[in-house]
């Protein structure tokens, strides 16, 4: 697919994406924090929307090898890296080349949809539709967990995020909640932050 914003903004940086994440403090510790927040039993059907190089799926599947996991991303190179990395560990989730706005999954198939650091890569005018698509593939009562760089809080972190938002298309916290509610998650709420940079949001499909 073409026309999307790649994991580290430039295609030539995609092979370095995992290293760059670790360098800015969003490596394995961040992924393990998400794992803890998800509180999985290991028997769920889980989708990672905008999975990139599978930095999250890797940690989730290491802890829960029985998880029925899938990932979707429009970046072919990121998915090739994901597939090779996971394959070396004997982990083979279903990986699909597609954007969050149009996913090749049946209605109501997943217990959990998680999306990390991906919403701000989706063009603004496609964000609401992409979140609606996440809801479409969730079972009723299923959980959507969104983690993204979001302008919020006070002090230096807020100013850093505000500056970043010019280049990265970041949402403010009210913007994310508004998108989630317009997509159909009336009860969506913020559920914490990581390093003051990443906001976590969650809601359940009615
Ligand atoms: C910063 S990376 C995050 C990757 C991964 N979720 C993580 O936490 O490391 C953003 C990802 O969003 C993907 N992306 C860009 N546009 C997208 C879209 N319309 N739908 C789904 N993913 C998209 C990019 O290809 C990239 O892999």
A few lines on this structure:
The chain has seven helices and eight strands, in the order ααβαβαββαβαβαββ. With 206 residues, it is α/β, with parallel strands linked by helices.
Envelope shape = globular
CATH architecture designation: 3-Layer(aba) Sandwich
Strand content: 15-25%
Low-confidence blocks of residues: none
Total helical elements: 7
Rg for CA atoms? 16 Å
CATH names the topology as: Rossmann fold
- Give the biggest sheet: 8 strands, mixed
Main CATH class: Alpha Beta
Structure description:
The chain has 7 helices and 8 strands. With 206 residues, the chain is an alpha/beta fold. The chain has a single domain, classed as Vaccinia Virus protein VP39 (Rossmann fold), CATH 3.40.50. Strands 1, 2, 3, 4, 5, 6, 7 and 8 form an 8-stranded mixed β-sheet that branches. The protein is globular, with a radius of gyration of 16 Å. The protein starts with 16 loop residues before the first helix and ends with a strand. Bound molecules: S-adenosylmethionine. S-adenosylmethionine binds next to helix 3.
List keywords for this structure.
206 residues; alpha/beta; 8-stranded mixed sheet; 7 helices; binds S-adenosylmethionine
């Amino acid at each position: 697919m073409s026309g999307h914003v790649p994991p580290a903004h430039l295609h030539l940086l995609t092979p370095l994406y995992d290293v760059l994440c670790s360098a800015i403090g969003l490596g394995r510790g961040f992924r393990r924090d998400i794992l803890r927040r998800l509180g999985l039993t290991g028997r769920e059907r889980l989708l990672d929307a905008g999975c990139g190089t599978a930095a999250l799926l890797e940690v989730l599947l290491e802890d829960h090898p029985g998880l029925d996991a899938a990932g979707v991303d429009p970046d072919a190179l990121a998915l090739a890296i994901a597939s090779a990395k996971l394959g070396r560990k004997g982990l083979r989730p279903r990986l699909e080349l597609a954007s969050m706005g149009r996913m090749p999954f049946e209605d109501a198939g997943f217990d959990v949809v998680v999306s990390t650091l991906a919403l701000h890569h989706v063009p603004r005018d496609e964000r609401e539709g992409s979140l609606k698509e996440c809801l479409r593939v969730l079972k009723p009562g299923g959980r959507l967990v969104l983690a993204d760089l979001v302008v919020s809080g006070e002090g230096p972190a807020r100013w850093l995020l505000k500056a970043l938002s010019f280049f990265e298309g970041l949402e403010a916290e009210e913007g994310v909640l508004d998108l989630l509610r317009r997509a159909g998650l009336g009860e969506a709420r913020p559920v914490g932050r990581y390093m003051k940079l990443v906001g976590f949001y969650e809601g359940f499909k009615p």
